[in-house]
Amino acid sequence: MKQYPEYLEELIEFLKIPSISTLPAHKNDMRQAADWVAERVRMAGIETVELHTVDNGHPLVYAARIDDTANPTVLLYGHYDVQPVDPLGEWHSPPFSPLVKDGKIFARGASDDKGQFAAHLFALRELSKKWGDKKWPVNVKLIIEGEEEAGGVSIEKWASENPKKLAADFVLISDTAFIRQDVPSIDYGLRGIAYMELEVAGPVRDLHSGVYGGGIVNPLSALAHILDKLLDLDSGRVRIPGFYDSVVEITEKDRRYAAEVPFDKADFLARAGVKEDWGETGYTTYERITSRPSLDINGIYGGFQGEGAKTVLPRRAGAKISMRLVPEQEPDIILKQTTEYVKKIAPKGVDISCKPVYLAKGVLLDTESPYFEAAGIAMEEVFGRRPVFTRSGASIPVANVFNSILGLDIIFMGLGLPDDGLHSPNEKFETTQFYKGIEAVIKFLEKVGQMS
């Protein structure tokens, strides 16, 4: 395995930037991260580099090198923003002071997605040394965003207004993971998402529960009543009327691919720290988390949260709810159905609001694409095993923009591992995945260049 210690040092520098897109206090850090990306693109021999902002959002980094329009064009995508670090006390080392230990880089964003898409940037730099100032056999475009963890509003709007800039034969994305440490995988499907905030409002202010308790509806009690009716815990089915209307049953092709996936339920449960699986009756655990829709309550707020007692009847309560959707489901329709249902089952005496946070449609890709084949060969040469085709339960909002709106093939060359701890304390990225990822991207783009 070839190592790239100089690139590891640059990645560490990148990981020190606290580019948390959802927190306004980090706006300057977001710009610093965008500038870091832009400079690395230029170092790879790509001179057309532009920074764009949409509605005062975080910068999009766009770049292009088109040497011969007759050659294939690849669009490289990644995101430089990261998740918040809470709970900070559970980190073994500071999240923005990268620690390299036992062949792992520990830092927020190490795997999601700075380490993974940095492998693209460094692969391009290596290729630029080989191809030099001659015509490159592959035209290269990049679009690196800073709002993926916040819903990707800017890139969706910018992409719809600039389709020619993003025109390509396919998109390469490294923002997913191997199905197992020794088994590389290429995702051919992602679930969509409808993320919403439900708020229940009652009295004009917090009230004394001794004076008012039992006389008016408590918004927290109303919220609990509503949440209880969203999901049948016995069958694992979502209770929202119409929720399953557009869901297509798992196909024989899906089952054939799934049979090749070494999904280990015991390992899945162990990584989650639980003893039993749960989900929709009639489906395997792997099918439930990749090919069936789901509903989860991600957070609940309202009332007194401190130590001790405060006899308060809160004026409002709320919950964050995410619904993972299969590609056939339309997020806006699901949101409308959910809103209508929640308002119907809400008790009298409270006001209900359902606010969308972000919506994204799922994608299902054509595995017969020649780029799938080239990616599979490149990964096999580097990682020593042919990748399996998998469906992912996660969502990448921009994937629908690329696939459904712009009509582009997508290759999900995931370099992460299942235990990387995305969105959790002590997130990590293994140096072997980083180094081999650079090599895999190099080989893949070389193979694409041979298609011209």
Mean pLDDT equals 96
**Portion of residues within helices:** 25-40%
* Poorly predicted parts: none
Q: What's the name of the CATH homologous superfamily of the largest domain?
A: Zn peptidases
- What is the number of helices? 13
What shape does the CA trace take? globular
Cα gyration radius (Å): 23 Å
CATH architecture of the largest domain: 3-Layer(aba) Sandwich
How many DSSP-defined strands? 20
How many structural domains can be distinguished in the coordinates? 2
Task: Give the terminus-to-terminus CA distance.
Answer: 29 Å
Strand portion: 15-25%
Query: And the CATH topology of the largest domain?
Result: Aminopeptidase
In the CATH scheme, the class of the largest domain would be: Alpha Beta
Q: Structural class, from helix and strand content?
A: alpha+beta
Main beta sheet strand tally, sense and closure = 9 strands, mixed
Describe the structure.
- With 452 residues, the protein is an alpha+beta fold.
- The chain has 2 domains: 5-190 and 362-449, Aminopeptidase; 192-247 and 293-353, Alpha-Beta Plaits (2-Layer Sandwich).
- Helices cover 34% and strands 23% of the residues.
- The strands form 5 sheets. Strands 1, 2, 3, 6, 7, 8, 17, 18 and 19 form a 9-stranded mixed beta sheet that branches.
- A hairpin with a 7-residue loop joins β1 and β2.
- The longest helix is centred in the first third of the chain and has 22 residues, at 110-131.
- It is globular and about 80 Å long.
- It starts with a helix and ends with a helix.
Nutshell version of this structure?
This protein is of the alpha+beta class and 452 residues long.
